[in-house]
Amino acid sequence: MAMTASDDRGEDPAARLVAYAAAQGLIAESDCRWAYNTVLDAVGASGPAALRAEIGSSGCGGVSDSSGEGCAQSAAADGRFYPDCLLRPLALAAHTNGALSESPDNPAVFERFSARLMGRLMPPPSQVAREFARREQEDPRAATGWFYHLCCAADYVRTSAIARNVQWRAATTWGNLEITINRSKPEKDPRDIARAAGLAAGGASVPAGECSSPSAPVATSVAAPAPYPRCRLCAENEGYAGRLPQSAGDGGWPARQNLRMVPLTLGGSPWALQYSPYAYFGEHCIVLNLQHVPMHVDRDNMARLLEFVQRFPHYFLGSNADLPIVGGSILSHDHFQGGKHAFPLMGAPIAQPLPWSDHAQVRAGVVRWPVSVIRLRCPDADALLDAADAVARVWRGYRDVRAGVIPYDADGTRHNTVTPIAYRRGDDLVLDLALRCNITSSEHPLGVFHPHREHHHIKKENIGLIEVMGLAILPPRLEPQMAALAQALAGGARDAAQLQRDPLCAPHAMWAQDVAARHDFAVEDVRDVLRQEVGAVFAHVLEDAGVFKWDAAGRAAQDAFLRTLAQHP
Prior knowledge:
With about 575 residues, the chain is of the alpha+beta class. The protein has helices at about 15-25, 30-45, 50-60, 70-75, 85-95, 105-120, 125-140, 140-155, 160, 190-200, 300-310, 345, 380-395, 465-470, 480-490, 495-500, 510-515, 525-545, 550-565; strands at about 165-170, 175-180, 260-265, 270-275, 285-290, 315-320, 335-340, 350-355, 365, 375-380, 415-425, 430-435, 470-475. Among the domains are: about 15-120, no CATH class; about 185-275 and about 280-450, no CATH class. The strands form 2 sheets. It has a 10-stranded antiparallel β-sheet. The termini are far apart.
């Protein structure tokens, strides 16, 4: 690194962070001296000697390698980058110096500090955009790989947090499903998601952290100023310093100084590519509209999905449905999710071909999958889009009361929509269209085609794009609960009344009693059994979300829809 030989920084965490930044390509070797002084300024230190003294008084934060680059190298051994060990002692020094007023023991404070410091050690957005464009001309895979690496190395993609998630595969009647207990994702009540979407559309005050409609009236006599940023997906988050919670009900705002976005043009309008900070799969990206407009699934946006996977053939791209219950957690900002991952749905076979004379170029069929999915496949994007648009149009107006499918309420409220997923298979473009309906009933007030009450102990949240494809995102509460259940069952507990005495086991007591009746824990590993049984519950959850069930009545209802579909160009 370009520093003088007399600068003996041995245990200096600022030097180690600069070495890490250079090794990961965040800065050039010739920038190291500037970067070092930038770090000193950020932590309020006047020089290396003072910094070492401050670190000595605060503790090293678990950093044991003094080689300058050892921490970065050891972190990168599995292809992931965890700069936390480099940032922790610097956060402590900043707090000692008064450059950080709150204690970095608070995770939100440490995250804000990390974002601010790493943001200083990154190329600016314009440089990132130019470099991405240059690399994309040579190889789109290399461009996205470089950009993803940059976001990981800068700690925007929180690889250390992601690595703590619990993941496994579960064998089910629908194939091997992917299960994740996401330790960093809070569990959301579906009613809160719907309420946020309704408020954003209807104009009442919107809770901190959610979106508001640009044209929505405010339920006060004086117009309230628009929040800044408008929502978590708006472009003005790039470089934003964030804010800590100030009161109960105020969720604060995450720091985004280390966020970088790459501009894209899709469908002739400005969009941007960024990566998810808490990725659920490989190179989990978000493609967002630079305009703050609500989610919508229509021909134009399905065309954008196809345009994207033609440009980046190694990625899939999909859209959450655009209605509450069956949509994602943020419905008021138009965006897609994609990445480099093969989901179980993509490997599911066609159970029933769909001859369609008006779209003879397109190979269409019903996928053998618990969620009702129509697969369309064709090398011609325009032909594929015509067929997809026909499916979406017919489904939006389709009614089958016996199957519980009601497209509109009497007041015109819409219930039918699709979840579209685009990807490549050889020379073919593929669109998987999941048929969704968000109708509710007295028996199922959270949604008829939503996880049913008997499964809420495992999964209560909406079934969105990622889960439709066969990857379960389960709440962090399940980790201690499953650990307690495993201990109780291994200890001989078999009766629900016994299990209900433990608050961690109680929500799962009836389910665990049934599990215990079907297994011999003297022979089987209780942890593995519970994991497979959780996977079975997720399979049932997906079945709940399917509008056409895989029984005789469901197959007959689906055939009726297919006949209707075949009659429309």
